[in-house]
Design a protein that fits this description.
alpha+beta, four-stranded mixed beta sheet, two-stranded antiparallel sheet, 7 helices
């Protein structure tokens, strides 16, 4: 996924790629429309989708490689949970989980569930802000005073944090639960606070 994201970014930037970013983190979204599972196995499948790294051998000689299919079969049969997985599904409407590296969503009521566009919009916002705050963090760790155009300074980050953490009057409970789950598992809230402080200090 990260090599694909890197190549796509370079395509979009065109020209000289020397300064093109190398993605460190890609938040994936899986919308499950059908599957062979039922009952507890169905729930477990969604949990695994939200944390796919448990099915990957990151120490393989040629780079990350899938584990034997027996591992997945065993987890589906016995169940899988992880302390960092947060549920944001609503009974009778959806089954949904957010993890560090992914979000898995299955709709059970098309009229009442979140739409793909709503899920993607939240994912893209969180991913973009995660990358932006990571860039600021990298500047600080490199011993620089982070500097951004005024329109993208600490006030911009303060506004973004407010939009992502404050419920709106016309917003459904599902939207609130989705944002809270993704913010918690991605660690973005703390990143936004730290980046705001760094930018505010650098502007005096």
């Amino acid at each position: 996924m990260r090599p694909w994201a890197r190549d796509r970014i370079r395509e979009l930037l065109e020209g000289d790629h020397a300064g093109a970013p190398n993605p460190e983190y890609v938040l994936s979204l899986y919308c499950l429309t059908s599957g062979p599972w039922a009952g507890d196995a169905y729930d477990t499948a969604l949990r695994l989708l939200s944390t796919p790294s448990v099915l990957v051998d990151r120490g393989a000689p040629g780079g990350p490689a899938p584990l034997a299919c027996t591992v997945e079969e065993s987890l589906l049969a016995t169940g899988f949970d992880h302390p960092d997985i947060v549920s944001f599904g609503v009974r009778g409407v959806s089954t949904a989980y957010a993890g560090w590296s992914g979000v898995a969503y299955a709709s059970h009521s098309s009229e009442r569930s979140l739409t793909t566009d709503e899920l993607v919009a939240c994912e893209l916002t969180v991913q973009a802000l995660w990358c932006f705050t990571r860039h600021i963090q990298q500047m600080v760790e490199d011993g620089q005073d982070p500097s951004m155009p005024e329109r993208y300074g600490w006030r911009f980050l303060r506004a973004a944090a407010s939009r992502l953490t404050t419920a709106r009057a016309q917003e459904t409970a599902q939207h609130v639960l989705m944002r809270e789950a993704i913010m918690k598992t991605s660690g973005l809230a703390e990143r936004l606070r730290t980046a705001q402080e760094a930018l505010r200090e650098s502007t005096g």
